[in-house]
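Hypothesis: this fold can be encoded by more than one sequence.
Test: take the structure tokens below, design a sequence, compare later.
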């Protein structure tokens, strides 16, 4: 009995420590993304700001013309295969990283990092992760500091396994979006000054259509979208685009099953009212 009680107490304290650390880490990441959001909001109200105001009701852009947005991805999957990251321990799952063009004329391309599930990859769902900010990298934060399969060691050169990685439960796709975030880019300089939610949602949809062409085995897979912070805009708006095009095509183009947002920022005015009222 004493041994059992000791084990229960030990488990309790371990769980408590994990919860405290999780809260601390979440607070750090939240502060980083809050800083990015604050800069974005201040820039948006500058007289010369070219950021599009998307506070009106969101409407999906009509991108149903398949041949205009989806291009041949033949051979690109294998080119994107990552044999091993620097300093990475041995793993049994496959990982990929590369660019998907979302606008050929503008030379706009989004970078992705994809990790297949630790096991049962053929049956587990596909989950797209979007970090917020706006401007926070899904690779730097989401993949390497939050839900990805690896963590960076204190030496800054090697990695260790994350025992709480979400790829134990799903195949995880991390997307750097919009252009200018992380490794994603555009050859058209005006793209960096005309960012808006509608444009981002349209680009994210085009990315998905082309990525699924590159990884056709996931075309009919159960699909989920998740994110945090300003992804409170990105996630539901991308979901809206997907459902809109599914309905218009009268078929399931993307098999969306659900969305999830963590500490979402969905309405800026409401957030700033709360800050003022509780200052």
């Amino acid at each position: 009995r004493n041994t059992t009680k000791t084990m229960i107490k030990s488990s309790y304290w371990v769980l408590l420590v994990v919860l405290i650390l999780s809260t601390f880490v979440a607070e750090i990441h939240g502060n980083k993304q809050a800083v990015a959001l604050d800069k974005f909001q201040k820039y948006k109200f500058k007289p010369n700001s070219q950021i599009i105001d998307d506070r009106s009701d969101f409407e999906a852009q009509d991108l149903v013309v398949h041949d205009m947005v989806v291009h041949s991805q033949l051979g690109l999957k294998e080119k994107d295969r990552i044999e091993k990251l620097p300093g990475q321990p041995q793993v049994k799952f496959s990982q990929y990283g590369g660019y998907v063009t979302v606008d050929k004329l503008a030379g706009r391309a989004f970078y992705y990092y994809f990790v297949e599930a630790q096991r049962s990859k053929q049956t587990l769902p596909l989950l797209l992760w979007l970090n917020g900010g706006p401007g926070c990298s899904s690779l730097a934060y989401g993949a390497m500091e939050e839900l990805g399969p690896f963590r960076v060691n204190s030496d800054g050169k090697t990695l260790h396994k994350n025992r709480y990685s979400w790829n134990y439960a799903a195949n995880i796709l991390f997307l750097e979006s919009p252009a200018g975030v992380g490794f994603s880019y555009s050859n058209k300089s005006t793209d960096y000054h005309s960012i808006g939610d509608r444009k981002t949602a349209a680009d994210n949809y085009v990315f998905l259509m082309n990525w699924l062409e590159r990884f056709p085995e996931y075309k009919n897979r159960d699909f989920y979208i998740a994110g945090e912070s300003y992804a409170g805009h990105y996630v539901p708006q991308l979901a809206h685009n997907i459902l809109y095009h599914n309905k218009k095509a009268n078929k399931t183009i993307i098999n969306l099953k659900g969305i999830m947002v963590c500490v979402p920022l969905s309405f800026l005015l409401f957030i700033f009212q709360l800050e003022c009222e509780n200052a």
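The longest strand covers residues 95-103. Residues 227 and 273 are 23 Å apart (CA to CA).
Hypothesis status: open.
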